[in-house]
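Please predict the structure of the following assembly.
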Amino acid sequence: MAAADGPVPELQSRADACAERLCSADRVLLASHIDADGLTSAAVAATALERASIPFEAVFEKQLDAESIASIAAREYETVLFTDFGSGQLDVIAEHERDGAFVPVIADHHRPAEADTDLHLNPLLEGIDGASELSGAGTTYVLARALAACSDADERHDNRDLAALAVVGAVGDMQASDGELHGANAGIVAEGVAAGALEETTDLAIYGKQTRPLPKLLEYASDVRIPGITNDERGVVSFLDGLDVECRADGAWKQWVDLTDDEKQRLASALVQHAVSRGVPAFKIDRLVGTSYVLAGETVGTELRDASEFSTLLNATARYERADVGLAVCLGDREEAFDRAKELLANHRRNLSEGIEWVEEHGVTREEHIQWFDAGGEIRETIVGIIAGMSMGADGVARDVPIVAFARKGDEETKVSSRGTGPLVGRGLDLSAAMGEAARAVGGDGGGHDIAAGATIPAGTEPEFVERADRLVGEQLD
Ligand code: C5P
Ligand code: C5P
Ligand code: C5P
Ligand code: ZN
């Protein structure tokens, strides 16, 4: 396949080199991250490896660190494919490579550590933003497309159908902005649409269009707060009942996807009018409409049909030590694994809403340049980052200052998660640098993206960490 045929031309030669190595391996250990992007990365890689008849085994890690890399090395695979992580720990991985433990192939989008390794596929190496233009799953998709070319796989598999999973990963990593995906991500969307795996529609930009009954859809939409609608059950019901749209069928509330296009149009305009009349500013009202990414092959009205709902379903598995369930769903299980994932989702949703309530109740501490909270053992360390992000803009939590959250991780360590916003990044915020530097100063380590990063630090060092992070962020925002 000619280089120009790849979805991201800048990455083609790196992708070809990585694919070539994988194609010549007897077997591959596939290691990936435990979130929606990590799971979809693993699913894209697993499918491409299988189609290329390359035997593999998949393992998942919460965080790649010296210990987890050592345990991967102990598996004695000659070739290890890291997806959605690896770049940040390149130094440690390169040491194992020098020792002859394994040859690493990395498909990641996190800020790379200083070190040299040949088979490293990362958008940041080619000037493409890893937080907004290409996710881990997108990067793995680029590799999967190259794998289709180097293997003697069935001609029918150009792997473009995998674009749908890549888009779920990008959406799960919150790479969409101004209502849609951009840059290399948009190129992947185009391939998915061309392959018939994906549909792109302009629609109401509210979470839950597939699965939430209409009143819950509107009531829980907290991204744009609308007086008389957001968190107002009675307000929502009277709004819906006042419309010239049949919102119920056989006495039960319909879901958004049950409405006809014309009904959707009428409901959306009424919602916009209502928001205008309640004084919601125009720039916020614009956010009510955006691009929806629909998985064409999935059943309407299920969590799998919409990229955003799909990604939450995956987080509900992998962040609760059930990556196997999420991976099975990605690979097509619509029975046992899908049922289990839905149970896990109910639990995840409960934890998210309880977590946000906890933050609202206990409040955050405001420093000069950051705000923070310490959830101790009250919030699971694997979801404290999601909660930190969702709580920005909630009661008592500012949106114009980055948020840092702590949660207990075992007896001796503390997990740190931090989240910023687009405007803060525009002013110079780089949480990956701030978290990494502050963590290393107190004996821990961290990294990630400019807009969202994390770290692990020794328990008890939180006050010093806060002081350092506050100063570093202050310098960045100067
Ligand atoms: O490790 P990984 O790259 O998959 O995680 C990215 C994290 O950054 C996600 O938890 C995502 O929610 C967060 N993020 C964010 N806002 C953005 C981009 C990413 O909160 N604009
Ligand atoms: O859980 P996950 O990180 O995939 O959530 C992504 C986004 O989806 C959240 O930041 C939130 O805006 C939205 N969401 C929601 N209600 C839920 C779960 C997720 O609105 N129950
Ligand atoms: O865990 P959390 O969702 O807060 O992670 C935010 C981002 O920071 C993710 O992209 C994650 O991979 C990254 N991270 C990291 N090193 C850590 C912790 C998180 O690179 N020690
Ligand atoms: Zn990712």
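The longest strand covers residues 198-204. The chain has a mean pLDDT of 95.
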